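Hi R.,

As promised on Friday, here is the backbone we talked about, encoded as structure tokens. Could you run it through your design pipeline when you get a chance and send me back a sequence?
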């Protein structure tokens, strides 16, 4: 292992031509094995648990990361060169070293020394050490599948991306940084070791790969119990996987469903399996630095909800979200199933092959028959996973199954624009055909209740009639918590009566994820309406406490009940600490700036924005938010300088000239706002908000005809854009076109009967 590295200019013509490129080679340790209190290392565990260690040794966990050696490197480094039209690389073996010749951190060709391998199946990636302690994941990966399956080849992970230096997705950018993005789940006993003052890492681990203590927790107390007989609860184990409750899965006599039930105490109270797997097998944000196994998931992480782009509206996986978020939606999770029921915890393999793994809890004579799956036995369609665990391929070759174990609903998928497992296999067949087939098999009355996906889709689309359906979903305790929390997050703001009732009810929910999301929803309310968040400042779950503090951020201390102020101070510290966990990322400092600004700490907010820009001088949210702050306090010269810097760094982002235009309007320079507002419209012609704002500015400059022409164009593309309708109606009224004004105001009022401004305008026009 090495710490630090230096860039050498190598001219070794007598050795190999590829050494003409700049050579990145390690010089001193930058990430290494080191002791951490309580950790003993997997080798110690193997001394007593040989069988488990042997099963683990062949697992993906054991090979999650390794020093780059001839024994661990799978890729062909025989000197072959690869290009995909956008990117090129040559892969070379130099004695014990493995080098990839490709674009370096500055774009010039460099020979990058591979420091570690990253993963094994179905692909292997490679890491490079940087001088500041960073390890970066290269974009070239080795397809480790058999050649007969298309593998045994080099390929680029993002072939359609230009990925120039400075892009955060470039291999040297922050989104490819191992220390922050990957390390905690690929190594054991990790201490990230980020020094915010120097913007450097000194990362250490106790095991380079995923070892015993990644799941079982720190082993020192258990070793003391085993070797010396030291008394300790649970044999000194921090995480208990073995169920000692006396419960078990049983098929009850006479149960026609053919599904086993858990008989015994509630399972999640006696076994921590899912909670232990979730931090690394789900998308989430860490709340504490370098957490150790054994804590509750929501005390250490904030999971990603079912957000657009990552999940389809029906909960199917879309982005690279791993397994927890889909499993949390499943009936399996609610019934008490845990990961180890299906997967052997040490080898990682399924406990049985094919449908046999499902048959542990689902009687084969009821489910593994053509009368249930309606496909020929032995064909892919007869496999449980084909219908209930549709797969998505990530990273080019990595096919992963959805763990929601959902029932196919092609009728719903057609409405929300999601894929469905039936027509994915039966290519060329429409969803209507698949839905008709299912109705013929199981009857038209099988599914009567509205599918939750319809409410989620309506919420994502911002439909004004979505609030009632979302509120009903949020308060339905028979639905999984992650689905209910997602519904809360989509409730429209300012809240309707239905939304407000749902938020009030879910604040008191028994599930902490639901409570936390309800508290986050309070951000849409005026500070005077957030006082009831104070009762959650001492909640037993860290995520809930953090969201309570966030909700109270703009509430003056004197308005927080005196008895709650000490709890607020503690929860506020937890909130800021949770943001500082990602101190190497500019967005963390932007978040901190926003929080401090709400508390009136302008000096702290400015310092946080500067910290963000120190990590990324062109970071758009920092520049725009800082400019908005300066605009509100009259610092017009500073606004112009910040936004000019933002435009230079982000020339294709419409939000920047839009912000400049708004700042000039605030500064009383409305005429000077026209050009940047027009630039925003040109960059984002599909965004009606930009066109609407430019139209108002044009109208204010006496260019009413131009303003109306722009609004008409906007309404042709977005016929129900509320602000454009109101503005158009007002301008038509002012120019004497009463009939057109009434028509436009009538559309706005009909779209939202609760819109008082639209109703008042329509009433005024009808009165005329």
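Update: got your reply. Pasting your designed sequence below so it's all in one thread:
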């Amino acid at each position: 292992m090495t710490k630090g590295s230096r860039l050498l200019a190598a001219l070794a013509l007598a050795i190999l031509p590829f050494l003409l490129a700049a050579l990145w080679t390690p010089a001193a340790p930058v990430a290494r094995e080191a002791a951490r209190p309580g950790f003993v290392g997997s080798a110690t565990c193997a001394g007593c648990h040989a069988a488990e260690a042997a099963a683990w040794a062949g697992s993906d966990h054991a090979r999650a990361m390794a020093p780059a050696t001839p024994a661990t490197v799978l890729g062909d480094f025989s000197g072959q060169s690869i290009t995909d039209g956008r990117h090129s690389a040559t892969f070379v073996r130099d004695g014990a070293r493995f080098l990839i010749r490709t674009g370096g951190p500055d774009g010039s060709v460099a020979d990058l020394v591979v420091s570690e391998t990253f993963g094994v199946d179905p692909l292997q990636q490679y890491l490079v050490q940087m001088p500041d302690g960073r390890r970066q994941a290269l974009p070239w990966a080795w397809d480790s599948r058999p050649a007969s399956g298309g593998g045994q080849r080099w390929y680029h992970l993002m072939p359609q991306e230009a990925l120039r230096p400075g892009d955060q997705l470039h291999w040297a950018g922050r989104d490819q940084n191992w220390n922050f993005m990957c390390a905690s789940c690929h190594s054991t006993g990790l201490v990230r070791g980020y020094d915010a003052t120097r913007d450097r890492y000194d990362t250490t681990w106790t095991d380079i790969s995923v070892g015993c203590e990644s799941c079982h927790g720190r082993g020192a107390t258990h070793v003391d119990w085993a070797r010396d007989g030291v008394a300790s609860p649970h044999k000194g184990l921090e995480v208990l996987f073995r169920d000692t409750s006396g419960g078990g899965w049983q098929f009850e006599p006479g149960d026609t469903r053919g599904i086993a039930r858990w008989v015994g105490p509630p399972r999640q109270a006696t076994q921590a399996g899912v909670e232990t797997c979730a931090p690394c097998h789900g998308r989430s944000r860490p709340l504490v630095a370098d957490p150790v196994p054994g804590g509750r998931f929501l005390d250490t992480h904030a999971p990603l909800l079912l957000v657009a782009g990552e999940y389809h509206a029906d909960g199917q996986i879309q982005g690279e979200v791993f397994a927890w978020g889909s499993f949390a939606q499943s009936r399996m999770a609610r019934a008490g199933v845990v990961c180890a029921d299906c997967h052997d915890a040490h080898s990682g393999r399924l406990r049985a092959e094919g449908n046999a793994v499902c048959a542990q809890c689902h009687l084969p004579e009821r489910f593994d028959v053509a009368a249930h799956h309606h496909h020929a036995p032995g064909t892919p369609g007869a496999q449980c996973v084909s219908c209930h665990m549709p797969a998505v391929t990530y990273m080019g070759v990595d096919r992963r199954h959805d763990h929601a174990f959902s029932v196919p609903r092609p009728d719903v998928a057609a409405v929300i624009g999601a894929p469905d497992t039936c027509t994915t296999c039966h290519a060329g067949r429409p969803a209507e055909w698949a839905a008709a087939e299912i109705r013929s098999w199981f009857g038209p009355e099988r599914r009567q209740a509205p599918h939750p996906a319809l409410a989620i889709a309506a919420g994502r689309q911002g439909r004004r009639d979505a609030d009632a359906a979302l509120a009903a979903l949020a308060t339905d305790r028979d639905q999984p918590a992650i689905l209910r929390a997602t519904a809360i997050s989509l409730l429209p703001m300012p809240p309707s009566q239905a939304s407000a009732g749902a938020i009030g009810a879910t604040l008191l929910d028994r599930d902490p994820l639901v409570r936390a999301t309800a508290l986050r929803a309070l951000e849409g309310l005026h500070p005077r309406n957030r006082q009831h968040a104070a009762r959650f400042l001492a909640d037993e779950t860290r995520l809930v406490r953090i969201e309570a503090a966030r909700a109270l951020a703009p509430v003056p201390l004197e308005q927080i009940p005196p008895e709650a102020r000490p709890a607020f101070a503690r929860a506020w510290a937890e909130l800021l600490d949770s943001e500082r966990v990602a101190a190497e990322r500019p967005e963390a400092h932007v978040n901190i700036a926003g929080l401090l600004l709400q508390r009136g700490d302008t000096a702290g907010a400015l310092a946080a924005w500067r910290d963000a820009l120190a990590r990324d001088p062109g970071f758009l949210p920092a520049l725009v938010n800082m400019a908005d702050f300066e605009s509100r306090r009259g610092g017009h010269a500073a606004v112009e300088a910040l936004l000019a810097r933002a435009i230079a760094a982000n020339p294709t982002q419409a939000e920047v000239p839009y912000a400049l235009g708004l700042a000039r309007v605030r500064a009383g320079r409305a005429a000077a706002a026209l050009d940047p507002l027009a630039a925003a419209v040109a960059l984002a012609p599909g965004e009606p908000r930009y066109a609407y704002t430019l139209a108002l500015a044009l109208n204010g400059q006496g260019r009413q005809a131009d303003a109306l022409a722009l609004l008409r164009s906007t309404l042709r593309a977005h016929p129900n854009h509320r602000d454009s309708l109101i503005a158009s109606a007002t301008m038509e009224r002012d120019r004497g076109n009463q009939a057109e004004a009434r028509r436009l105001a009538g559309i706005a009022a009909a779209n939202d009967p609760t819109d008082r401004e639209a109703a008042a305008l329509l009433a005024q026009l009808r009165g005329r």
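One thing I noticed while checking it: The radius of gyration is 29 Å.

Thanks again,
M.
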